Amino acid sequence: VTVTEKVDLAAALATFDEPFQPWIVARYNDNKVFVAKVRGEFVWHSHEDTDDFFLVLDGRLTIQLRDGDVELGPGEMFVVPAGVEHCPKADDEAHVLLIEPIGTPNTGDSTERDAAPEREL
Amino acid sequence: VTVTEKVDLAAALATFDEPFQPWIVARYNDNKVFVAKVRGEFVWHSHEDTDDFFLVLDGRLTIQLRDGDVELGPGEMFVVPAGVEHCPKADDEAHVLLIEPIGTPNTGDSTERDAAPEREL
Fold this sequence. Notes:
The structure is a homodimer.
Chain A: E1 7-8, H1 9-13, E2 23-28, E3 31-41, E4 52-58, E5 61-65, E6 68-72, E7 76-80, E8 86-101, E9 119-120
Parallel strand pairs in A: 2-9
Antiparallel strand pairs in A: 2-3, 3-8, 4-7, 4-8, 5-6, 5-8
């Protein structure tokens, strides 16, 4: 996928099933624009140097923060500020569009789980 | 709106009617995340120093490029590369989520139309 092609996000999400695997669909300046499926609970982590952009496309996503949960449905977005610990989870399955700088590990500063490789659809 | 609040994009779009006016709903690092209504044709322009992120939330958007048109429906996105001339239009009305660096005029290098002020919902 190059930046000069349009991306149908639902079609991109239909090409894989693995949860918590970021699939890059486009690039915006120095950022990767990616989709992921959230099923179950991820891992608590933070990104010291970058905000973390979440937009729910389908399903319901809970972004757990130390101060409380943010509950997102389709068409709802949230930006986790840099340095803020968070742990995404979905009781069923949620489809999410995310934006982070290229090279940012999806697990941030966590040592509990290996970072997923950056894969491009 | 601060970055620590969630944003319901449809609700944000329901609060205004003016076409081609960017309304900032969140910030992601040095970028503004904003929504806009496209009705009719905007103006040909380019942004020399930044890509331009478009995600259609509702309706149909045509991003005219000098090489041809990109047609986007709901859930479809496109990144206009930096320096590439483009002119968004919608025959009916399209609701769009956009991302650009803070301070980027929505009219880019165009002199045909005044840039809209950055307004925050």
